[in-house]
Design goal:
mainly beta, 2 domains, five-stranded antiparallel sheet, four-stranded antiparallel sheet
Length: 248
């Protein structure tokens, strides 16, 4: 098996790969998984016949390794000898913010015969994989009800207290449905009107705000906020409850 980052292919069996995964929570929801690939490898060269020649050959062998991991945003993966990808593949296009080299090529061992015909190194790459089943990270909806009873006014009199006068024995029932939702991948769709038969279409308002970057360090999420407002009116009571998280 071999490891490849971008166009750079490690020699077969050159490195040991460790994989760790950590859930990234936002508003109590596991919005993504942070995957970290760490390679512990050893580059070996054929003996060139002299110490100086070995050192030059080792320098030449390390240069493309360091150059490959100088760049972010490349695909990383562990492949079978025939080139078939294994389960441990991280595609740049599938991540939030792209793949990142979080530990550039490092050399943790400096003693012994290092840099003769071999050199031990470590390097680490990570990416943030979104949880598409938890794309909505915030949801709030409110219903307001009014109307349905008599409507009256008070007439001021020249002498004595005001007089109460009923204008209508019964008024229409009114309701409003307002809310907002935040997605970390795209704008959430607003829910359907609760009482479509009683809606005032000309009073419907759907707003989408500019995406907001969330998170001061590392790969940040982007919040996409959608708000909605519906107005209803009917001769019968409008009965219902707000949509729960994600019903829309």
């Amino acid at each position: 098996m071999y490891i490849q980052y971008g166009n750079y292919q490690h020699a077969i069996g050159e490195g040991a790969l460790s994989v760790s995964q950590q859930a990234e929570y936002e508003s109590g929801i596991a919005a993504a998984v942070r995957i970290r690939f760490e390679v512990q490898g050893r580059i070996q060269i054929a003996d060139q016949g002299s110490v100086l020649a070995n050192q030059g050959a080792m320098t030449a062998a390390l240069a493309p390794l360091e150059n490959a991991y100088f760049h972010n945003g490349l695909d990383f993966g562990l492949y079978q000898d025939d080139g078939t990808p294994t389960q441990h593949v991280l595609l740049n296009a599938a991540t939030l913010g792209g793949t990142r080299v979080i530990t550039p090529v490092s050399y943790p061992v400096g003693r012994g015969a290092e840099y003769s015909t071999f050199r031990n190194y470590t390097v680490a790459v990570e990416g943030l994989i979104p949880n598409y089943y938890a794309s909505i990270v915030e949801w709030k909806e409110t219903l307001n009800f009014s109307g349905g009873g008599p409507e009256f006014i008070f007439l001021q009199t020249l002498n004595g207290p005001p007089q109460k006068q009923v204008l209508y024995q019964q008024t229409t029932y009114k309701a409003s449905q307002q809310g907002s939702a935040v997605g970390n991948l795209a704008y959430p769709l607003p829910p359907d009107p609760l009482w479509p038969y009683a809606i005032h279409p000309n009073r419907t308002v759907i707003d989408r705000s500019s995406p907001e970057r969330v998170g001061a360090t590392g790969i940040a999420f982007r919040h996409y906020r959608t708000t909605w407002s519906y107005s209803f009116e009917d001769v019968a009571p409008l009965i219902g409850d707000p949509n729960f998280w994600g019903n829309g």
